[in-house]
Design a protein that fits this description.
Layout: H1 4-10, E1 14-17, H2 22-32, H3 38-45, E2 59-63, E3 84-89, E4 94-99, H4 102-128, H5 135-138, E5 146-150, H6 151-164, E6 172-180, E7 193-195, H7 201-215, H8 223-229, E8 232-237, E9 240-250, E10 254-262, H9 271-285, E11 289-295, H10 299-307, E12 311-320
Parallel strand pairs: 4-5, 10-11
Antiparallel strand pairs: 1-2, 2-3, 3-4, 5-12, 6-11, 6-12, 7-8, 8-9, 9-10
Helix pairs in contact: 1-4, 2-3, 4-6
């Protein structure tokens, strides 16, 4: 009997590729994502390092243009002509995706639906055979619970994915605007900015808690490890910490600035702008490019960054389809 997943794949212009081609797929994310998918591409680059026993759990998929007559493209994969790429991890119920058009979004959605049907059919076969059913297979009844990727592709898939989990709306959706600073925009060192050090713990904890209250994000609690990392920076004025920020991620050619926060009583003085310009200066000194993400709903921060020269690359969506299980 033909495997249901093989039937699903055969009906689409979707190809599951080996992890040895992960770097090519990551290059597609970088080339087509306009900087929005660079973080995800960084992790895809590392997929070949996955231990052998775990590799079957990683479904790295690409969508190619259909050949004449609408049939799937045959032969070797042309990575320069891809319409989409997705990493799907069934056991984790999650996926990373870049779908350039509705065709790719529909193909990936159908693939996920086929994956659900496969495990439902296997569970039914197990029950019909008089067995109680495999709990590990039962977990696959939720084919996907979390998806991240360029916003338009995620939005195109969302109605189909919600139908798979029996929901009318996602449990949570966060859309961040990814921004880059052009090389011609200047940056400068600020004497008020320094690397966080021992003794700053109280201020850093206050930053964490107030950031969570305002933006709904609570940073990791290991403040000592933060300080030791050298990636947390504070703005000090009259021996008092009035603002903080951090390097969220360091890539070979880019560093992402995150958590920029000025304590409420010190706002509207340009302190946050000075802090960011200093961090840009430090990043460029390391021969890397600066990047940052801003919540799409944080219009005041977006306006400030755009007025100081930051350019919008695109939107990165993170969607939780249902409550965590």
């Amino acid at each position: 009997m033909t495997d249901p997943m093989e039937q699903t794949i055969a009906s689409l212009n979707v190809t599951r590729i080996g992890l040895d081609k992960a770097a090519r797929a990551a290059d597609f994310l970088r080339a087509s994502g306009n900087g929005v998918m660079d973080l995800i591409a960084h992790f895809w680059d590392r997929l070949p390092q996955t231990p052998p026993l775990a590799r079957d759990d990683l479904h790295l998929l690409v969508v190619q243009p259909a050949a004449d007559g609408g049939s799937p493209t045959a032969g070797a994969i042309d990575f320069s002509r891809l319409e989409g790429a997705m990493l799907y991890v069934p056991k984790a119920h999650r996926a990373d995706v870049l779908a350039k058009n509705n065709v790719a979004a529909g193909a990936f959605s159908t693939y996920l639906a086929g994956w659900e049907r496969l495990f439902r059919s296997r569970e039914t076969e197990s029950t019909d055979a008089g067995q109680s059913g495999d709990d590990s297979l039962h977990n696959y009844y939720i084919p996907i619970n979390y998806i991240t990727g360029e916003e338009s592709g995620v939005e195109a898939m969302l109605p189909h994915l919600l139908a798979l989990v029996g929901k009318k709306s996602p449990a949570r959706k966060v859309v961040n605007v990814v921004m880059h600073l052009p090389d011609q925009m200047s940056a400068s060192h600020c004497d008020h900015v320094r690397v966080a050090r021992n003794g700053d713990e109280a201020a850093i904890n206050r930053w964490r808690k107030q950031y969570n209250q305002e933006r709904g994000i609570l940073f990791d609690a290991d403040v000592d490890a933060w300080i030791n990392s050298g990636n947390v920076f504070v703005y000090e004025m009259d021996k008092q910490i009035v603002a903080a920020a951090k390097f969220d991620l360091t890539l070979p050619n880019m560093i992402e600035i995150g958590g920029v926060f000025t304590f409420p009583e010190f706002r509207r003085r340009g302190i946050g702008g000075e802090l960011v310009r200093d961090l840009v200066w430090r990043i460029r000194a390391m021969k890397k490019k600066p990047s940052l993400q801003v919540d799409k709903t944080n219009t005041s921060a977006l306006s400030i960054y755009q007025k100081t020269g930051w350019k919008v690359a695109g939107n990165l969506a993170r969607v939780w389809l249902s409550e965590s299980r």
